[in-house]
Design brief:
The chain is of the alpha+beta class. It is about 35% helix and about 25% strand. It starts with a strand and ends in an 18-residue tail after the last helix.
């Protein structure tokens, strides 16, 4: 589908400086991108002149200059050869050396100097001579071998230093190497000659088998062509008047194969660089074919050359030449050059260049695949082409998908929106009078201009009901009439919406732009106006359909407007010459999109990406394909905001994988489709998600819900986008939506597809909005669920309100109403069934259809239960008939219900449906109180029963009693006690409170004293004693003292409890209050001694623990800092030196060669443990069992393991917290000691407490570093988290046991706040 379009054409003539001398040979200097050519020798002058053709590119022009490198006399060394001839010219760019091989046998080398002037220090040397004479010579593509054929029928292989490798004779014995096998097919004696022989002939057997006859027009030349990799060389020569044969030799001179016999094969030869085909020509009486051979010498297809009517090419001297990337085959005839391409096994004639005289040589650029030079008598032509798709507008509604393909005199046109016709076929074919050169569509696809060798055709694009019709011819321009007597080579054409045609041509004075306007009323073209083009090389495509501009690009990348025949320079430009260019206007913001030859895509001067292979510009997107075989969509905004999506087709809808080598042909935003062409030529039409969603959004914004719904359905886009994209707009236009969608099934499909997810924030997030704005919109968007109603219910209610408001409700409307009820969240089964119940009263047939539909939408068993719940037995029977149930299951049950009273029937239904609370309410309404009580106890309906009977005192008391017994049976003693207490059953309440435990000792004693008859004093004492012992065991010493003092009247038992709880002030107060000061010396002092002993022991233990653990933590941290690999990984294998850039971070790049890894020293996952995983990929045999085992090791924190430090740090934190919790008790103890005249003991305890608190403060400073230290340590640990988050490569994620170690290390790096320690102040009274 791609055409060859010229982007460069220049001609240098020898008339001015070299008297019109004939150019005899030429070659490329790829390093300088220049041509070298030779003049002479000829019959007039035997000198050879070597020239370098230079181009001077300026803004106003491109000037060409021929600069002589060297000249010397080259007389013919052979008396049989009147004038010597150059058979090979090759330039070695690395050594500035040019090698010339002459027919007479001389091999000459010209070495240039590295100075600016090529004439300085030029050295000419004849490297050797072949006495027999040379017929052909060719250098290998790698410039290491020279293959030479001599007039003595030999082949010589030489090195670059011209040392002979091998000398091979061309003999008739070589023909035996042919892989061709002949069994006589085609000969008369092997053919059946009876009646009906022709009808019975096998079509796979040829009627005639070639014998290799030599063509009468054969020039007898020998041709050499290398394969692209230089491994083989093909030589075409006539073998002793037997036949012309193509021999294939390997690089070392071994004969590999010989071609099969082919009649009238010509001397033209070219091996495709890709290596699969060897091209030659075969002459017939009425045509000439280009034929192909495989390396084994067997035929492999052909195609016929085309030529103008009235001309024959059978006697032309034809040359063949493949370009560097094997995409174009150049066929050189006597007066023209044809460029052929192949796609889908069809050969297209893409260009035919008239040369006026015979072409001596055509040579392709070795690096720029579509650039060539041609030596044509006294003229050297340089031309360059690009592959470009001639496509129509991509702006709706003009996006017909029009694509035109050039094939000689035929133009194949296909509108892909109308018909997806695969090439080489086409929907329309237009025949022109001469081979087509270029064609173009107007910006709005109104016109199509076809440029051919002799003029321009203007066609009008016509449509009927959005279907394209064959283009209609409006007028024609003939160059011979408009530009009589001028040399004119047409190159490109452009057409506008104002009937203006602009043609870029190359004339005698250089490039020109001719402009003519078509008058639709008269059907004639106006007179041509001319504009000198300077360095302009082509027209840029305009994306705006209403644009009337004509934009060209010059060799410096500047853009010129030439619509008014005045050179108007654009404000935007490209950074350099970009062959593919499109101009778009976004509300006055002009952006020039350009693509370079090496795949760099630019927007104005900004480089977007470096691996682009093709691009399209639609009103919404810049669509590109990349060398990574990805299709990407870039939202069109201003240049600085253009965002190229990442290579993540799984997560980003703007990126999609495509077939390898696929390129863009056209796009149809109206159809939301793209057409891609694969490398072999076949087409593929796709509907990219980004394009489809963007189109659906646009349709929704335009209130075209019909098309939006259709695209959602055909492209499998979630229907929720119809609401989520514009929620308020949808709710305001529900009636319009229903009217446009129309079809009953489509409305049902929409309703059934609804869910509460906002798809515009999940699967169809708008990637065009800036990320910050997207986050703000997402946070600002109200949650539908938080407003009390889900999104699904809001939509269903809106649809139902419009449907129910209709005056007439047909079957479709009722079906949609039922669907709206069933699709709610949760489904409104009752509402849907009520609609069916209403229909049962009006129309039985509609009711049956409605039941079928509702049973299709929901589970029939659920609907049966819901119908029973409506107490509508006929409806339940109708639903049951739609199920797979046996009538014997439900008919007796429904018949039994019919026989029951109404309330009893409702109770039976609700009990059957397990709606026990409703069933209980029916029992209450029937005044079946005893049955209600039994039903309450059976189904634990106590809350519902209490609610129902809250005003019935008698039954309420009974239910409360049942409830209390129920709570007691479930061990909910506190609640049971409260319930019994509300019933004044204090004995049961006492029992429950006592069973509830120490938290209810007050309620228990209260209930015990309220019992009737009252408990005996002994029973109360026993109860109080039991409770006192229980609360003492629970360490509630104040409660125990209260019970002993108030309920057991025992001060002697209460004071030890208070002392045990460090409540010395209360103990001393009670001794005085009860006038028993003697207890101070006996009980209080004894309690002080006990608590002093325990406190001193506790503080001493804490001090000892701190003195042991804090230095150990410092030691471990010192080891980890000095030798992290030794601490975390173990010994390095072989005693290798530890690198100085080690990191203890969790990174896949930290490994010790041959030793255990960072995470495997303690998990047994090293190389010597048989692990089959690798750190780099995260593959591991660690399982959850390993993880549990490792977590146990971490919890134990055994000494010597990697988990020891974490365990010790946590232990210190717990110890500090315990000390802080004990300080209030110690403070009360100190005050009591002072009050009881024990200052020495108080002073010792106070000092010990100060030491412990000081040790805690020191431990907090040393064990728990500050936040800044943690940050620095984290940054210094190699890769760290920053590298894992910001690096391009994915970091290794540990699993199993390795993950436990990783969590430990991360916990060590993470900031840990030190425990809070209150300031310590010594008691001033103690001194």
């Amino acid at each position: 589908m791609r055409n060859l379009r010229n982007i460069r054409y220049n001609a240098w003539k020898t008339n001015a400086s070299f008297n019109g001398a004939v150019i005899t040979s030429a070659c490329w200097d790829p390093a300088k991108d220049e041509l070298l050519c030779t003049l002479g020798p000829d019959t007039v002058d035997g000198r050879v002149r070597l020239l370098r053709v230079l181009e001077h590119v300026r803004a106003s022009s491109i000037d060409i200059e021929g600069q002589e490198i060297a000249s010397w006399d080259a007389p013919s060394p052979n008396p049989d050869l009147a004038v010597d001839k150059i058979v090979s010219l090759h330039h070695f760019a690395d050594s500035l050396t040019t090698c010339l091989v002459f027919e007479g046998g001389d091999i000459t080398v010209v070495r240039e100097s590295e100075n600016s002037s090529p004439s300085d220090g030029v050295h000419i040397e004849i490297m050797g001579s072949i006495d027999e004479g040379i017929t052909a010579a060719s250098w290998s593509p790698d410039e290491e071998l020279l293959a030479v054929t001599t007039k003595a029928d030999t082949v010589i292989f030489m090195t670059r230093e011209f040392d002979g490798i091998t000398n091979i004779n061309l003999t008739a014995e070589d023909l035996k190497a042919s892989k061709h096998v002949s069994v006589g097919w085609g000969k008369k004696e092997t053919q059946f000659q009876g009646r009906g022989a022709k009808a019975l002939r096998d079509p796979t057997i040829p009627e005639k088998v070639d014998q290799g006859a030599i063509s009468p027009t054969d020039d007898g030349k020998t041709s050499i062509s290398w394969r692209g990799d230089g491994a083989y060389v093909a030589i075409s020569a006539i073998e002793q008047d037997i036949r012309r044969v193509i021999r294939v030799y390997s690089r070392d001179g071994t004969l590999d194969s010989a071609s099969e016999p082919v009649d009238h094969i010509g001397s033209a030869l070219s091996w495709r660089p890709a290596g699969n085909l060897i091209a030659s020509v075969q002459g017939f009486e009425d045509r000439v074919d280009v034929i192909f051979f495989e390396r084994n010498g067997l035929r492999h297809g052909q195609f016929s050359l085309r030529y103008p009517e009235g001309k024959t090419i059978m006697k032309d001297e034809i040359q063949l030449s493949w370009n560097a990337d094997s995409t174009v085959l150049a066929v050189t005839l006597d007066d023209r050059i044809q460029l052929w391409t192949m796609g889908n096994y069809h050969w297209y004639l893409k260009q035919e260049i008239l040369t006026e005289s015979k072409t001596t040589q055509l040579l392709w650029h070795p690096e720029k695949s579509l650039r060539f030079g041609a030596a044509i008598a006294g003229k050297l032509v340089q031309a360059e082409y690009i592959f470009e798709v001639a496509r129509g507008s991509l702006t709706p509604p003009y996006d017909y998908g029009a694509v035109a393909v050039i094939d000689g005199q035929n133009v194949k046109v296909t509108p892909f929106r109308t018909a997806n016709v695969p090439p080489p076929m086409a929907m329309f074919e237009i025949h022109v009078s001469s081979p087509t050169i270029d064609l173009a569509f107007s910006p709005a696809n109104t016109f199509m201009a076809i440029l051919h060798q002799t003029g321009v055709y203007l066609y009008q694009w016509t449509t009927q009901e959005q279907r394209s019709l064959p283009p209609r011819l409006l007028g024609a321009i003939q160059f011979a009439k408009e530009h009589a007597g001028e040399y004119l080579l047409p190159l490109q054409v452009s057409v506008t919406e104002t009937f203006s045609i602009h043609c870029l041509c190359f004339g005698e004075e250089g490039p020109l732009i001719f402009s003519q306007r078509f008058d639709s009323s008269s059907g004639e073209f106006s007179a041509a106006t001319t504009l000198y083009a300077g360095s302009m090389f082509g027209f840029s495509r305009l994306t705006q359909a209403i644009s009337e501009d004509v934009v060209t690009q010059d060799a410096l990348g500047r853009l010129h407007g030439v619509a008014t025949q005045a050179d108007e320079l654009y404000s935007v430009r490209h950074a350099s010459q970009l062959p593919w260019s499109e101009i778009l206007d976004l509300a006055g913001n002009v952006i020039a999109i350009g693509l370079s030859r090496n795949g760099q895509l630019y927007a104005n001067s900004r480089l977007l990406l470096k691996n682009c292979t093709s691009f399209l510009v639609t009103p919404a997107h810049l669509i590109i394909t990349t060398t990574n075989h990805l299709l990407k969509f870039i939202h069109l905004t201003d240049v600085d905001s253009l965002e190229v999506p990442p290579d993540d087709p799984e997560a980003d809808e703007r990126c999609r994988s495509i077939e390898r080598g696929a390129k863009l042909i056209t796009a149809m935003p109206t159809n939301m489709s793209l057409v891609l062409q694969m490398p072999r030529g076949n087409l593929e039409t796709i509907f990219p998600r980004a394009m489809v969603v963007a189109g659906i959004r646009k349709l929704i914004e335009g209130l075209d819900y019909q098309k939006a719904f259709a695209f959602c359905r055909t492209q499998r886009v979630d229907m929720n986008i119809l609401y989520d994209h514009k929620p308020e707009q949808f709710l305001a236009n529900v009636g319009l939506f229903l009217e446009q969608v129309g079809d009953i099934a489509n409305i049902d499909l929409f309703l059934s597809s609804l869910r509460d997810e906002d798809v515009t924030q999940t699967m169809y997030r708008d990637t065009k909005a800036p990320k910050g704005l997207m986050a703000v919109e997402e946070s600002a968007q109200p949650s539908v669920g938080s407003e009390g109603s889900s999104k699904v219910n809001v939509i269903c209610d809106a649809v139902l309100s419009h449907l129910q408001a209709r005056k007439t409700k047909d079957h479709g409307t009722l079906q949609n109403i039922i669907t709206g009820h069933i699709c709610k969240t949760p489904p409104a089964f009752e509402d849907g069934l009520r609609v069916v119940a209403t229909l049962m009263k009006e129309d039985d047939q509609l009711a049956e259809k409605a039941v079928e539909h509702i049973c299709f939408l929901a589970d029939v068993n659920t609907l049966y239960d819901e119908a029973l719940g409506l107490y509508h037995l006929d409806l339940a029977l109708l639903v049951a008939q739609q199920s797979q149930r046996d009538p014997r299951e439900y008919l007796p049950f429904i018949q039994n219900l019919h026989s029951l009273p109404k309330l009893r029937m409702k109770f039976a239904i609700d009990d059957h449906l397990n709606r026990h609370e409703k069933a209980l309410s029916h029992l209450k309404d029937m005044h079946a109180h005893q049955e209600a009580q039994d039903y309450t106890a059976k189904h634990s309906l106590y809350s519902a029963a209490l609610q129902l009977y809250r005003y019935d005192v008698t039954n309420l008391a009974i239910i409360r009693g049942l409830y209390a017994a129920h709570l007691e049976s479930r061990s909910k003693y506190r609640d049971a006690g409260l319930t019994y207490e509300s019933l004044n059953d204090y004995a049961a309440a006492t029992r429950c409170y006592r069973a509830a435990g120490v938290s209810c000792w007050r309620e228990c004693l209260f209930a015990a004293h309220q019992q009737t008859p009252a408990l005996s004093p002994d029973a109360l004492t026993e109860l109080a004693t039991t409770l006192a012992e229980a609360v003492y065991e629970a360490k509630d010493y104040a409660a125990a003292a209260t019970i002993h003092l108030e309920h057991l009247d025992s001060l002697e038992a209460a004071i030890p409890c208070l002392c045990k709880g460090y409540l010395f002030a209360d103990a001393m107060r009670l001794c005085v209050q009860h006038r028993k000061p003697s207890l101070l010396a006996t009980l209080v002092d004894a309690g002080l001694a006990d608590t002093l002993s325990s406190s001193t022991e506790f503080l001493a233990d804490c001090k000892a623990q701190l003195l042991a653990q804090v230095p150990r933590i410092a030691e471990l941290r010192h080891k980890a800092a000095d030798d992290p690999l030794g601490f975390y990984e173990g010994e390095r294998a072989g005693g290798a030196d530890v690198p100085d850039d080690v990191s203890v971070a969790a990174s896949s790049r930290v490994t010790a060669g041959g030793g255990a890894s960072l995470f495997t020293r303690y998990t047994g996952k090293g190389n010597n443990s048989g692990s089959v995983g690798t750190l780099g990929t995260g593959v591991s045999r660690a399982t959850s069992k390993n993880r549990r085992r490792e977590e146990k090791k971490r919890a134990r924190g055994r000494k010597g393991t990697v988990y020891e430090e974490e365990y010790l740090v946590n232990s210190v934190r717990r110890l500090v917290d315990r000390v802080e919790a004990a300080r209030p008790d110690v403070a009360r103890l100190l005050a009591a000691l002072v009050r009881r005249a024990m200052p020495d003991r108080a002073r010792a305890l106070d000092g010990l407490l100060g030491e412990v608190v000081g040790a805690c403060e020191g431990a907090a400073r040393e064990v728990f570093p500050t936040a800044n230290a943690n940050v620095k340590a984290g940054q210094g640990n190699g890769d760290g988290e920053g590298n894992r988050d910001g690096g391009e490569e994915e970091s290794w994620q540990p699993a199993g046991a390795d993950a436990v170690l990783a969590e430990t290390l991360e916990a060590a790096w993470r900031k840990q706040d030190p425990p809070v320690i209150a300031p310590f102040e010594k008691m001033s009274l103690l001194g």
